[in-house]
Amino acid sequence: MLKKLERAQKKWGGSNTLIDQWLNNRRNLLINYCKIAGLPPYDPIENTLPTFGSIKAFCDLLMDYVSEGHFEIFDQVVTACEKNGTSSQALAQQLVPQISETTDTALDFNDKYTEAVDDDDNVLYHLDKDLSSLGHAMETRFALEDKLLEVLHTKYS
């Protein structure tokens, strides 16, 4: 996911402040995801689980990213696509609901780990599986968002 982000930043970065903000927030989210998942370059310390504090901090970033997309960025992109014509508008109307489907996984993850009590290690036994599901949803979401970025970049930069 980080390599795809780097390609996206090379392709679209610097052309539009909205795109730059979007990609920067995605980078912060992915870095924190890699840290709590123990993915390179953030390998876990020998057989230790992340702290609830680090998971909850990640959840905050996740909710900020999802909320920003739904309540700020997507509206601006859809509005821009409406101004450009029916093909851009149709694409936006097709992609935004698909992106919204990935939100449920993010919300479920957030609910499970922000409501967990710090001494409830049983919740952490499911972390790898939950992070895997979340990672898949994030990858799907980013691919769909990149299609919107392409429209935004092509039509409005």
- Report the C-alpha radius of gyration, rounded: 17 Å
Give the number of helices.
6
* Secondary-structure content class: mainly alpha
Question: What is the share of helical residues?
Answer: over 70%
End-to-end Cα distance = 25 Å
**Global geometry:** elongated
The description of the largest β-sheet is: none
Q: Based on DSSP secondary structure assignment, what is the total number of beta strands? A: 0
- Taking pLDDT < 50 over at least 5 consecutive residues as the criterion, the unreliable ranges are none
In round numbers, the mean pLDDT is: 81
Provide the succession of SSEs: HHHHHH
Strand % is: under 5%
Explain the overall architecture.
- The chain is elongated and about 55 Å long.
- The chain is built from 6 helices and no strands.
- It has helices at 2-12, 17-37, 52-84, 86-114, 121-124, 127-156.
- Helix content is 82%, strand content 0%.
- The longest helix has 33 residues, at 52-84.
- With 157 residues, it is mostly helical.
- The model has no long low-confidence stretch (mean pLDDT 81).
- The protein starts with a helix and ends with a helix.
